[in-house]
């Protein structure tokens, strides 16, 4: 049993009562038990409002005072964003400790008491309370101040990027129907030259009416520099022999125009969030240290800090790796030795960000490139590509944690110890 688990048991033993809350959008349910598991009040509901929160506080006090109980631990599922308002309200009350439980644990353990798959809010609240009683809970992290601002900005950028990707897919879908040859000429439909063509004459009939010279002249006037004359001519030739649909072009053209307007707006919003991330990062004290690491840019750093928050709340880089669900797990029993893989029990968005950072660093950072190559090609226990990337992520996290904690810049000469350097040179 880990020290953190023992600490949780101590907290449960020192608490006078445990409350489980099943979170919903409008009405929450709560159940109260003693640390020994005995139920002292049947589940009750309260509204997701200030009056509802105050009524919960009053009910808890009415139950605790006659029993001479003073301190409670309140557990809840981090369901979407609905739990945050209640958690922030309860955290301000001195005699209440707020914790969260894993929704999967609630689902898996709801049949333990009655051997019945029945699910209702009252039953779930007691299930949550009993998970807390067994010290199966987590300390919630609700970022404050600058860390809350960075997380909001990071989430906003990721949401806009997803929208932009969706709009781009819709643009391609429209083009594929009315001008299927177009994407063979322009691999990137959002390039500057492509954008100008789609704005002026998106479909084959429009391009033919414009003519080869007219199309070239338009691109020369709008793009001016950096366009390919050969590519523009190929576009005209493709339009002449196009097999694209010819019915419904008027509304399809209007649809495409709307998509492109939306795409332009989203690109501006993405730039705005990136500028915001830079400004916020500079206020954290981490900016210089993280940006000094070759392969990590402003956007990557902003998204990473948005997910992690204040790095000083972690004791080691291994703790961050576990927080991301990148810790290694093994499925073995008796003589059977299963494969080892990552747990994926953590923040999925953080994992995605770390994977992207690792890919970039393998390409641009000499030290990570060497490490990745060595891990894949070493004689003893060579790793597959994905395994090597996970190992590189571990090293990247160690570097980030070290430079931030020591308030230093990245130094290539200090990345590897002598033993690892000897292995890399020998490979």
Descriptive account of the structure:
- This protein has helices at residues 3-14, 50-64, 82-91, 103-109, 121-133, 146-178, 182-185, 192-200, 204-210, 212-222, 229-240, 249-281, 287-291, 298-308, 317-323, 348-364, 366-377, 385-406, 418-426; strands at 17-22, 27-33, 39-47, 72-76, 96-100, 328-333, 336-342.
- It is of the alpha/beta class and 427 residues long.
- It has three domains: 3-133, ATPase, nucleotide binding domain (Nucleotidyltransferase, domain 5, 2-Layer Sandwich), CATH 3.30.420.40; 149-277, Helix Hairpins (Orthogonal Bundle), CATH 1.10.287.4070; 287-426, no CATH class.
- The chain has a five-stranded mixed beta sheet.
- A hairpin with a 4-residue loop joins strand 1 and strand 2 (27-33).
- It starts with a helix and ends with a helix.
- 31% of the residues are buried.
């Amino acid at each position: 049993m880990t020290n953190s688990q023992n600490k949780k048991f101590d907290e449960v033993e020192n608490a006078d009562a445990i409350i489980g809350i099943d979170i919903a959008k409008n009405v929450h349910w709560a159940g109260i038990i003693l640390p020994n598991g005995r139920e002292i009040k049947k589940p009750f509901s309260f509204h997701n409002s200030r009056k509802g929160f105050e009524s919960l506080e009053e009910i808890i006090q009415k139950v605790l005072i006659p029993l001479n109980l003073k301190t409670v631990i309140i557990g809840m599922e981090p369901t979407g964003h609905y739990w945050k308002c209640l958690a922030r309200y309860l955290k301000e009350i001195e005699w209440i400790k707020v914790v969260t439980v894993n929704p999967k644990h609630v689902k898996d353990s709801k049949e333990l008491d009655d051997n019945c798959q029945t699910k209702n809010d009252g039953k779930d609240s007691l299930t949550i309370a009993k998970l807390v009683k067994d010290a199966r809970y987590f300390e919630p992290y609700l970022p404050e101040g600058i860390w809350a601002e960075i997380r909001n900005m990071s989430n906003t950028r990721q949401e806009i990027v997803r929208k932009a990707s969706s709009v781009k897919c819709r643009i391609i879908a429209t083009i594929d129907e009315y001008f299927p040859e177009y994407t063979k000429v322009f691999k990137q439909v959002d390039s500057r030259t492509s954008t100008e063509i789609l704005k002026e004459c998106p479909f084959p009939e429009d391009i033919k009416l414009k003519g080869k010279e007219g199309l070239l002249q338009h691109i020369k006037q709008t793009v001016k520099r950096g366009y390919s004359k050969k590519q523009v001519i190929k576009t005209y030739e493709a339009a002449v022999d196009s097999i694209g649909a010819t019915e419904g072009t008027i509304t399809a053209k209007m649809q495409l125009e709307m998509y492109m307007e939306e795409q332009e707006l989203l690109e501006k919003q993405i730039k705005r969030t990136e500028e915001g991330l830079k400004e916020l990062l500079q206020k954290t004290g981490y900016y210089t240290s993280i940006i000094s690491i070759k392969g990590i840019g402003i956007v990557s750093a902003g998204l990473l800090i948005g997910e992690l928050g204040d790095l000083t709340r972690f004791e080691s880089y291994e703790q961050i790796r576990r927080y991301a669900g990148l810790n290694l797990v093994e499925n073995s029993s008796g003589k059977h030795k299963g494969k080892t893989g990552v747990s994926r029990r953590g923040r999925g968005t953080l994992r995605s960000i770390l994977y992207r950072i690792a890919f970039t660093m393998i390409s641009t950072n000499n030290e990570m490139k060497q490490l990745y190559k060595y891990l894949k090609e070493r004689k003893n226990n060579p790793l597959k590509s994905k395994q090597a990337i996970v190992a590189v992520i571990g090293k990247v996290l160690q570097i980030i944690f070290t430079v931030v904690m020591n308030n230093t810049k990245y130094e290539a000469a200090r990345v590897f110890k002598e033993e690892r350097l000897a292995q890399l040179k020998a490979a």
